[in-house]
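ok so I'm stuck.
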Amino acid sequence: MKRDTLLRALYAPNRGSGGYAFAQSPEELEKSFGKPVARLASNENPFGPSPAVFDALKHSLSDVHRYPDQEVKQFQNALRSLYGSYSFVIGAGMDGVIETVIRVIIEPGDKVVIIEPTFSFYKIATEAYHGSVCSVSLRDDFSVDPEAVIQASQGAKLTFLCTPNNPTGTTISQETIEKIAESIDGLLFLDNAYGEFSEVLLTPFDLMKKYDNLVIGRTMSKLYGLAGLRIGYAAVPDWFLPFYEKAATPFAVPVLSARAAIAALLDQKYAQEVRTHIMRWRDYIMQESPLSIVPSSSNFCLIDISPKTGEEAAQFFAERGILVRSCDSFSGLEPHYIRVSIGRDMECERLLEVLHAYAEDIKR
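replied:
not stuck anymore, here's the structure
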């Protein structure tokens, strides 16, 4: 009886539907393919983290029985040294930051605005806290309509903007961001997880000086190669900081993750080398692809694979040793797209070969 009551609550309409859609397992694909595959589905750093990270991890293993405290403060200090004296908060990936912000500000029934297609976790986390999602569509060219966002955000507690956007790779101009921030009463969460790969808004935290309703989130998963250690951060308004800290999960970031993040952040030379590689190959793939690619400012490309669906195209690529992300699961996006991360030289070369093979295949 107790189980039935709980199940009815979990299946209630306001709980939302679906969850995060994961890419196909590389291990499973490698078993069927018989050799290593190009892992281009999850927007990861293909080189891994700075060598300094491995040194930090090696010297931190003896402290894994301790709760992180000073390590998180030291990471916040490293962020201030790099970006300025802002109020930085830390979470288990940017997902952890997003969930905590929602936990702080959203009560059942509160409106949250999401511009689709975009990162699915905004909706998942909002519905988990019984918020009411209001979706705004991107324009046909995947740009943001600021007037539509402002209109939808009237009465909303929270609005999410993702730039560069996942899965489109498109950016939002600083002018548009400022217009929205100035025109809404709720909190504006600017997801800048892929910001290091863009020429737009290179120093986003400067905006914190102008707007007291702005949160700017970033992650150590992409440029810095710490996806497996789950650490993200955000600059928040000073007035919001005590509320965030009160609601945050205690000791959410492990000792190893915090120390690795400090080491990665301090090695900007390595980060710049990775950034240069990613941007060079991204631009080259957009130039040489026989298929239409949405202009990207991120470490991935959204590719139109019409007339097939994303699932069908992903299978075609998998059979040729390349793991890509089908975009069928992204709400608000037509099903004829795949998302492809930028990998190492050999992986990018193989990607272009398979793109040309795919283009020939759909001509038949």
